[in-house]
Amino acid sequence: MPDRNEQALNGQTAIITGAGRGIGAAIAIKLAGLGATTVLCGRTRKTLETTADSISAAGGRGVVRECDVTDLRSVETTASELENTLGRIDILVNNAGIGSFAGPLHQMEPRAWDAILNTNLRGVYYCIRSFAPMMIRARGGHIINISSLAGKNALPNGAAYAASKWGLNGLSYSVAEELRAHNIRVSVICPGSVDTDLSPHEGKNAEKMLKPADVAHVVAMLVTQSPQSFASEVLLRPTQKP
Q: Interhelix angle for 72-85 vs 123-138, to 10°?
C-alpha cells in the first residue's frame, strides 16, 4: 500500500460507512495506507472483515464495527463506543448507499423508495448527527459525502436514487456552512458510473468506467488538503465516456 504521502494521516481516525466492498472498501484501504486508523462500518461483518484483512496485510489498521446507518440507535451506539475506545474521529466518509433502476417512479413500490432515501440521505443525517459533535469538541475534522452525477443530471428509471443524491448535495452544501466555524470541512464527491455491483450499468463499457480506487484517490486528496482551504464539491468523470 505504498503512497508518497504515506504518513499524512498518521494518528488520525477515519470512519467509512459501507466499507465492506466497492467504493467504501477502496476508500478504507487508501486512508489506511496514509496512516489512519480506519473504522469499517456496515451491516455485514464478513465483507467488513475482508476489507480489514486487506488493510492488515498491508500493515495498516482496520477496526470492524457492524452498524446500520438507517437505524439511529445503531449509529449512536457506534459513535459512543468509538469515542470511548479511540477517543476521536477525524474523518467521516458517508459512503453507504443503495440504488434501484428498475423502472419509472410511478411504478415504484413505496418500500423501495423508503429503502433508498433512508440509506442514501437519512443515513447521512444520522451519521453527521452522531459524529459531528465529536469533531466540534476536537475543533476540527473532515466530512466527505459520496454522492453521484445523478445528483446533477436527470436519471430516467432511477428517480428515487437521483432524488436521494440531489438531496445529499444540498445537505452537504448547507452543513459545510454550518460547520466551517468549527474548523470542520465538508465536501461532496459526485462520481459518474463506477464499476461496482451497485447497478448493472447496462450498455456501458466497464473498462472505460471509473473504478473504486478513482473515488478513493479523490477522498485522499480532500483529507490531505492544506488546512486553510477545502474543495466543497468534486465532479469525477471517466476520461472516455463508457
A: 30
Rounded to 5 degrees, what are φ and ψ at 157? 70, 10
Domain residue spans of the chain: 13-236
CA 88 to mean position of chain CA atoms: 18
Residue 22, SS3?
Answer: helix
What are the pLDDT digits (tens) for 60-91?
999 999 999 999 999 999 999 999 999 999 99
Neighbours of 135 (CB within 10 A): 23
Q: Which residue has the cell 498491508?
A: 58
Residue with cell 470511548: 84
Look up residue 110 and give its three cell numbers. Answer: 413505496
Q: Give the helix, strand, coil percentages of the chain, each rounded to 5.
A: 45, 15, 40
In the block, cell 495506507 appears at 33
In CATH, 13-236 is 3.40.50.720:
yes
For 100-130, the three-class secondary structure string (H helix, E strand, C coil) is CCCCCHHHCCHHHHHHHHHHHHHHHHHHHHH
Structure confidence by residue, pLDDT tens digits, 22-64 = 999 999 999 999 999 999 999 999 999 999 999 999 999 999 9
At 96, give phi and psi (nearest 5°).
Answer: -55, 130
Pairing of the two strands 37-42 and 61-66: parallel
Is 173 catalytic? The answer is no
Q: What is the DSSP string of 211-236?
A: -HHHHHHHHHHHHTS-TT---SEEEE
125, 126, 161, 173: which one is catalytic?
161
